[in-house]
């Protein structure tokens, strides 16, 4: 893993939103169910820019926040040019222009926590940055969650 600083312009996503903690997401397979639902309804998102799927995670910035216990918001959707029509039960979420630390996770999705631990723990512990309350993943043609060749780009908003 080789973290890099990146500035990214604002972008907008149309997709589904859920609020849960990591334990609930895993035990109830909420992420997988939401992804499946998005894929089933992808033709409804007319303004898609590419086929990549974005997983955006929004955290409460409270002391001792623990994503395993504390609920947070996830948005799973497609990047869109301009959100003219929003399909029923979907939402629009705009990610602001911001600076990020980015790293590519390589390996099983079940081991993705290692990349997050490295970015939020090790990397930030050695840098003058703090988390800005959200992060996102980009799932493209390299996204093969159950294979060792899986790759996921992870972006953590920093301030």
UniProtKB/TrEMBL annotation:
UniProt protein name: AraC effector-binding domain-containing protein
SMART domains cross-referenced by the UniProt entry: AraC_E_bind
A Pfam cross-reference name: Cass2
Signal peptide residues on this chain, from the entry's feature table: none
Residue span, AraC effector-binding domain: 1-159
Gene3D superfamilies recorded: Regulatory factor, effector binding domain (3.20.80.10)
Domain of life: Bacteria
